[in-house]
Amino acid sequence: MDVRPVLSSAADSARDWILMKTIFLLRHAKSSWDDTSRDDHDRPLNQRGERAAALVGRFLQQEGLIPDLILCSSAKRTRETLTLVQAVLGDDHPALIEPDLYLAAADVLFDRLRKVGEDAASVMLIGHNPGLEDLATTLIAPKATALEDKLAAKFPTGGLAVIRLPGTRWRDLKRRSGSLELFVVPRDLV
After folding, report:
1. Beta strands 179-184; 95-98: pairing state
2. For a FRET experiment, which of 5, 71, 93, 118 has its CA 20 to 30 Å from that of 26?
3. Residue 111 maps to a domain
4. Range of the domain at 72
């Protein structure tokens, strides 16, 4: 299955990319429930999750989808997802571990994005559902595409949505203004 982003010819121009912001929403990979006494915040990835996070990292690297900044929940499973993605992408891109992103609602995530520095044209958020899925639907201007239907059906662990937004300043981020350019899940990458 070809999962490369399909971009309009107009959006392919360098000028259009300069006038856009890109958000990568990555839900943490599959976590372990083996130890039920463990606090939710401290649950690690299971083996399937480790493989999925590495697959997503390779996909991002192969497609040249490298974020300028990574914002990551402080939960163990999100940090482990980050580590496995960075193992492929390299760790020379700033990554911030933020406790406020743990199980954050869409409004909290949206407000955090509006505080991103203007030197970053693209940001990856590694977090949790339902916040990430709700944020995606908050950002996307609905066009009733197959990609949007796929995202609406389920945003599984290890799922990655790439959303492009008009504008050059994060503080001007608006709801329902983005375009869903890509949505992949780990099974698409096997």
Report:
1. unpaired
2. 118
3. yes
4. 41-189
Judge contact between 131 and 105, C-beta under 8 A. Answer: yes
Secondary structure in 3-state letters for 30-57: CECCCCCCCCHHHCCECHHHHHHHHHHH
Residue 5 lies in a domain: no
- pLDDT-derived band at 18, boundaries 50, 70, 90: low
Mean pLDDT on 89-110:
94
Q: What is the pLDDT of residues 21-65, one digit of tens each?
A: 999 999 999 999 888 888 999 999 999 999 999 999 999 999 999
Number of structural domains, the chain?
A: 1
Residue 77 annotated as binding site? yes
Token pair of 37, please?
């006494």
In a domain, 133, yes or no: yes
The three-state DSSP-derived secondary structure of 138-188 is HHECCCCCHHHHHHHHCCCCCCEEEEEEECCCHHHCCCCCEEEEEEECHHH
Confirm if 189 and 56 have CB atoms less than 8 A apart. yes
31 occurs within a structural domain: no
- Which tokens is 49 given? 């999750």
Torsion of the alpha carbons at 126, 183, 153 and 75, rounded to the nearest 10: -10
CATH number at 166 reads 3.40.50.1240
User: How deeply is 44 buried, as exposed, middle or buried, from its count of CB atoms within 10 A (0-12, 13-18, 19+)?
Assistant: middle
Closest among 119, 150, 74 to 82, alpha carbons compared: 74
